[in-house]
Amino acid sequence: MTIVPPPKTIAIHVHGDLLGDALMKLPFLRAVRGAWPNARITWIAGKDRTYFALDLAPLVTGLIDETIQQAGFGKSWWKIRGPLADRHFDLIIDTQRGVFPSIGLRRVRQRVFVSASFGFLLSDRKPGRGRTRPARLIDQMMELLELAYGGTPPEGPDIYIDPAREEVAAALLPEGKAYIGFAPGSGYDRKCWPLDRFIAVARAQQAAGRAPVFLMGPNETSMVEPIRTAIPEAILPEDERGAGVSKDPVLSIAVAKKLTAAVANDAGAGHILAAAGTPLVSLFGPTPSEKFAPGAPILRIVRAQDFGGEEMDAIPEEAVGAALKDLLKETAPAPSRPAKG
What we know:
Layout: E1 9-14, H1 19-24, H2 26-35, E2 40-45, E3 66-68, E4 88-94, H3 99-106, E5 109-115, H4 117-120, H5 137-149, H6 163-172, E6 179-183, H7 195-207, E7 211-214, H8 221-230, H9 237-240, H10 249-256, E8 261-265, H11 268-275, E9 280-284, H12 289-292, E10 299-303, H13 317-331
Parallel strand pairs: 1-2, 1-4, 2-3, 4-5, 6-7, 6-8, 8-9, 9-10
Helix pairs in contact: 2-5, 6-10, 7-13
């Protein structure tokens, strides 16, 4: 059952978005815009801040019209005048599951309210009987959107990369080569596959005629020298610019769009690669892939548990090399057939 008339104003509520969280939610945001291309979309971080109002703001041009940070939904639900009491939205989608924030948000004037909180008790739209809760966070969000839309929405527009960053990416990775990306870092050491194995897989790709590209974040400065020593020809985009390591996730996405395929830990860089549409080998150890797998269009997951361990070093180099080879085989263009004559 679709919303009639279509909503002109939409609010989407989250607790907050760190970089990886926001990147993971991009497919949902694109789908919201695909569902209602003419609506004014407000992204509300009820408790914390959102990267959509910070570093990723250029990326969501045309997808988000307004961001509100630290709106104050939570235990203040009992106050006579709650947050955003002077606002009205045709549709509110509440993507978090805390009961008190949902109660506070439900008090904001709206026409349709969709929320999974408290078993959909507060929601105007509810799933049918026999529903199985999706494991992945992005799929849980898409379920809410489909309830609001009344089905699967049309595909939304692509994320926006400004021309200046596209020019920088084109200069760093010029046409004529196949580039393979490697993202060896993470905000948590336990989520990092050993750097020497990343380097070994990268050297094998170099021997096959492909150029290794290492995507390095602010926490990976100690990895630069070992990579430079082992593979002098490797491309480290930010290092090539004299910028050290990447502090610009939008530029990282522009660079990722130039890659043929990539290998990444379960970290923000993996979601950057997925947001760019890069075919991806995603490595998991202590975190569940069922919940946090990135939304890459072509994805191979390699888990430590499949090799008898919980930690990342349980993953053998050969398994990642084989997954990458399989990925490249799938992404290779079909051979052209000779013309009949």
